[in-house]
Amino acid sequence: MILSIVVFFVLLLIIISPQKYISVSFNAIEVWYKVLLPSLFPFFVFSKLLTSFGYVKNISSCFEKVSYKLYKTPPISSYVFFMSILTGYPVGSKLCSDLYKDGYLSKSDAKKCITYTSNSGPMFIIGSVGIGMLISKQAGYIILISHIIGALLNGLLYRNLKYETKQTKNIYSNKDVESSLSSCVMDSIFSILLIGGIVVVAFIFIEVLNNIGIFNPIIYIFSKLGVDENITTAIVNGFFEITKGCLSVSSLNLSLSAKTILSCAIISFGGISTTMQAMAFIKDIVTYKFFIGQKITHMILSTIICAILCFIFF
After folding, report:
1. What is the pLDDT of residues 134-166, one digit of tens each?
2. 5-22 pLDDT, tens per residue?
């Protein structure tokens, strides 16, 4: 009932001010086709092909002992981890979903795998945030290192989730190249369009919340506690969307160290928009409550590490 009211209210605002929300939609689509489409779509296709032809087993076999001893997960989870830190959100979740559906990971294995493979990538952290927003490559590297170490430690917190022993599926396949390519491309097209739709919805929802001033009481309360209004606004923006949050942080009148720590916290949490993208793939594996909970622990661990590194290097 409450959700229906919220959706109706958003629809009403769109009808009242269509031009404003059309502009927001165009901004979201621009982010999708300029950033997400070129970086994620090729990766979706070729990672799916690797899984389809069975090469994933060869790639991950050398990490077998590490995966079992540290995280109690099959070696294939190491492949998901490395791909997640190379490419970024929501690739880790997409791969966990694919491997779970194809029978390479049990549900409990996939659930544990998600806790350390939901990561942002170096292109965004170093390029967009470090160099582009904070004007510091060093800050970008500090955030990236903190983010990755935080993810590895986060996985250790959840390693003792119920573990199912299960016969591993034979990952080698004799599928026809042409049929596999067509299938992988179709699956990837659906995935990238799904992400684009979620990005548009998230942008519109954030704009609606800002327009009705729903965050004003939060900003007022924190201002009474001595927290600058701009800092609270930046954190709130980051809670919903990481790019907007990091951009807001970069414009704050704070030291580079403080901006780096805040950016690391926002990136490691991922934001509601990223959560929605991830959950579109892994809704059959984990709940929203679990996913957001493990992202909060990832954020805490990464932020602590980032604060220590900033104290040492800045």
Report:
1. 999 999 999 999 999 999 999 999 998 765 544
2. 878 877 888 888 888 888
Secondary structure class of 136 (helix, strand, coil): coil
Spatial contact of 124 and 245, defined as CB atoms under 8 Å apart: no
pTM of the model: 0.85
Q: Left if phi > 0, otherwise alpha if psi is -120 to 50, otherwise beta: which for 253?
A: beta
Name every residue whose Cβ is closer than 8 Å to that of residue 296 and which is 6 or more positions away in sequence: 269
In this structure, the chain runs to a length of: 314
What is the Cα–Cα distance from 10 to 24, expressed in whole angstroms? 13
Whole-Å CA distances, 177 to 57, 105, 131, 191: 18, 24, 41, 21
Q: With CA atoms as reference, report the closest residue to 243 among 219, 218, 272.
A: 272
Rounded-to-integer distance, Cα 174 and Cα 245, Å:
46
The pLDDT tens digits for 71-103 are: 999 988 998 998 899 888 998 999 999 999 988
Task: Round to whole Å and give the CA distance between 139 and 255.
Answer: 12
Q: Are 152 and 116 in contact (CB under 8 A)?
A: yes
Q: Degrees (nearest 5) of the Cα angle 81, 86, 88?
A: 85
Taking alpha carbons only, the member of 55, 119, 60, 57 closest to residue 87 is 119
Angle subtended at Cα 211 by Cα 205 and Cα 215, rounded to the nearest 5 degrees:
85
